[in-house]
Design brief:
single chain; 2 domains; 173 residues; mainly beta; binds zinc ion; two-stranded antiparallel ribbon; 14% helix
């Protein structure tokens, strides 16, 4: 989604659009898919040279449940705010660095491409560990049986509050 700078005024405008998002979150080795586009509602306006955005996104995602490894669907929703300032002179490297350290985002050219921001905000909205359900019982750590569908003879039921330890998959890398 691109918004021409000429459309951005001191009077706030509201727009709604759908953005196709592809996300593979490497660090958690969980691939999250968005079978349909993410819906974005955003209000924007200019104040001086800065452009302010305020909005909300909502999408339906699919991922592997981190306990039972079944594919599951869940809703991703988030509100967001950000401010864009004009790109500093490209020749001035020092200035760029400083602005980067301050966490500022820039705009250049004739229009503003919101797609990278939508992707970034969608990434921030993803659950750390997707679950098919809060009560997902996961896999038996001993025999691998899918405990949502079956029971196995390996482990005594034990204290349900300890289930989180039984289902924990530690990353030892
Ligand atoms: Zn599950
Ligand atoms: Zn078992």
């Amino acid at each position: 989604m691109k918004i021409p700078l000429s459309r951005i005024d001191t009077i706030p405008r509201e727009t709604r659009f759908a953005e196709t998002v592809d996300i593979v979150r490497e660090e958690a080795s969980v691939a999250v898919r968005f079978p349909s586009p993410v819906q974005v509602d955003v209000t924007y306006y200019r104040s001086g040279r800065e452009i302010f955005f305020h909005g909300r996104l909502k999408g339906e995602a699919e991922a592997e449940c981190s306990r039972c490894l079944e594919d599951c669907g869940f809703v991703v929703e988030k509100s967001f705010d950000f401010v864009l300032t004009p790109d500093p002179l490209p020749t001035n490297k020092n200035m760029e660095l400083t602005a980067d350290e301050m966490g500022l985002s820039f705009y250049t050219g004739e229009d503003i491409d919101l797609s990278p921001f939508v992707r970034e905000q969608t990434l921030l909205a993803l659950p750390l560990r997707p679950l098919c359900s809060e009560n997902c019982r996961g896999l038996c750590p001993d025999c691998g049986a899918e405990l949502n569908r079956t029971t196995c003879g390996c482990t005594s039921p034990g204290d349900p509050r300890m289930a989180v330890f039984r289902n924990l998959r530690l990353d030892r890398s």
